[in-house]
Write a structure and sequence with these properties.
This protein is α+β, with helices and mostly antiparallel strands. The chain folds into 4 domains: 10-112, Phosphorylase Kinase, domain 1 (2-Layer Sandwich); 119-275, Transferase(Phosphotransferase) domain 1 (Transferase(Phosphotransferase), domain 1, Orthogonal Bundle), CATH 1.10.510; 283-384, EF-hand (Recoverin, domain 1, Orthogonal Bundle), CATH 1.10.238.10; 403-476, no CATH class. It has 21 helices and 14 strands. Strands 1-7-8-6-3-2 form a 6-stranded mixed beta sheet, with no helix packed on it. A two-stranded antiparallel sheet has the order 4-5. Strand 7 and strand 8 form a beta hairpin. The relative contact order is 0.10. It comes from Stylonychia lemnae.
Length: 481
């Protein structure tokens, strides 16, 4: 393993840009609109279409672009806070933010494209869902909510709070709003009430508290009762009803937390069922080893690719991460990693291997393996060696678009207010790349200042990504200065 380990934060790769977004994105069609603006289906002009050499077909990578009129945003500071929080979130069941664009009048959020449609549409189409379908959805929802709450984030307002901090700004849709929100003092527990309402609607097709108008609905939320007497509930299990009852407790301190809900027998039975059906490819172990042995810049690039790769290309790894994450907090501990790899057929990792893997895979040094860190370490080469992923990654580091990555560009990409790539770190990066220590490397840094030019071209970048742990001799052989 290489001696140098650079701290990498996934959120560093989410750029905030200004200018005309249509210079870089094709807007294909409008997907919807609302009070703040509209959402569009879009494609990046440079990397939107690419040839997948492994499948020999042209693939389009599409994104969603949410365009919001600044003048319609009542509290722009709170809106910016929501964006800041979204950048920090890293979970398999939470949408990924790729970058933001801004003009004098409009703010654009570029996110991954979710094509499954709205849950409410599926419920109204079918009147209600089967209990197994509802359990699958609620498990995913509580998995995400548990992560948010453990990160001290209240979903309804997307704001950071302390565990018992009270909030006083009512926000929500009448059917789903919790009683304490109407009274003006509430905590993250209001999210769990809303989840109880969603679950009730999924299983019965109707909300627990209805009414002819908003005022009547809200009055019933405060003072009404619900029951399971309707015919739709006859074949619903007692466990499902128990979970709903514990979520729709009017007293917030008596209500289930998201963690308690995730660990409820009804949810855990669904998790065990899904986990039993997940067979993890043994290649995951080999990919982990290759990641651990790779040079820092390759690991950095894999993190960037993992943060933007379409979900359909990593579905198996997404399932593996969820299977490993036994307590549902959205990150892996050393014990969860040890137990998880035991389920992989033919796994030969020793205890020392696991600790080494944990140390290297934890690229942001927070003591856990976060979702994107796991994906980066386990990616199959046929995924990350696709042309559009490589070109997108290279273009991200090549800020001025001149076809080479300089030391200044690398420092700019791998730094924020909490971390700066020092000259010493740059020097050590040179050392780990210059395997024969003859300083005849133009791979990452060639001659310019103090006899060293700091740049890497696209061909050299590709060679780095193709190699597992060190530069190929054939590449270095032609880099005489």
């Amino acid at each position: 393993m290489v001696s140098l380990s650079i701290q990498i934060e996934r959120q560093w790769f989410i750029d905030s840009r200004q200018g005309n977004i249509k210079d870089e994105y094709y807007f294909e069609k409008k997907l919807g609109s609302g009070g703040y603006g509209a959402v569009y289906l879009a494609k990046h002009k440079k990397t939107g279409n690419y040839l997948n050499a492994f499948q020999n077909k042209l693939i389009g990578v599409k994104v969603a672009v949410k365009a919001m009129q600044k003048g319609r945003i009542q509290d722009y500071e709170a809106f910016q806070n929501e964006i800041s929080i979204l950048k920090q979130l890293d979970h398999p069941n939470i949408i990924k933010l790729h970058e933001t664009w801004e003009t004098d009048r409009i703010c654009f959020l570029i996110t991954e494209l979710c094509e499954g449609g709205e849950l409410f549409y599926h419920i109204t189409k079918k009147k209600s869902l089967t209990e197994s379908s509802a359990a699958m959805i609620m498990k995913q929802a509580f998995y995400a909510l548990c992560y948010l709450h453990k990160s001290s984030i209240y979903f309804g307002l997307a704001k950071k709070v302390s565990k018992n901090e009270l909030m006083t700004t009512p926000n929500g849709t009448p059917y789903y709003i919790a009683p304490e929100v109407l009274k003006g003092s509430y905590t993250t527990q209001c999210d769990n009430w809303s989840m109880g309402v969603v679950m009730f609607i999924m299983l019965s097709g109707k909300p627990p508290y209805g009414g002819k108008n908003n005022n009547e609905i809200l009055n019933n939320v405060l003072h009404g009762t619900f029951d399971f007497s309707a015919p739709q509930w006859e074949n619903i299990s007692a466990e499902a009803k128990d979970l709903i009852s514990n979520l729709l407790q009017r007293q917030a301190d008596m209500r289930f937390t998201s963690e308690e809900a995730f660990n409820h027998p009804w949810i855990q039975r669904q998790k065990r069922k899904e986990d039993a059906e997940i067979v993890i490819n043994p290649d995951v172990i080999a990919n982990m080893r290759n990641y651990i042995e790779s040079v820092n810049f390759k690991r950095t690039t894999l993190t960037l690719i993992a943060s933007r790769i379409p979900e359909d290309q990593i579905r198996a790894l997404r399932e593996a991460f969820s299977k490993f994450d036994k307590n549902g907090d959205g990150k892996l501990t050393i014990d969860e990693l040890k137990e998880g790899v035991k389920t992989i057929k033919g796994c030969m990792l020793t205890k020392d291997d696991i600790y080494q893997a944990m140390s290297v895979m934890d690229s942001n040094k927070n003591g856990f393996i976060d979702y994107t860190e796991f994906i980066a370490a386990c990616l199959q080469s046929y995924n990350y060696l696709q042309e559009n992923h490589l070109f997108t990654a290279f273009s991200y580091f090549d800020k001025d678009g001149d076809g080479s990555i300089t030391q200044d560009e690398l420092r700019q990409c791998l730094a924020n207010e909490d971390f700066t790539l020092t000259d010493d770190m740059i020097g050590k990066l040179v050392e780990e790349v210059d395997m024969n220590h003859d300083k005849l490397v133009r791979y990452l840094f060639s001659i310019i200042n103090h006899n060293i030019i700091q740049q890497i071209d696209y061909k050299e970048f590709i060679e780095m990504m193709k190699n597992n742990s060190e530069l190929s001799k054939s590449v270095l052989g032609n880099i005489l200065i």
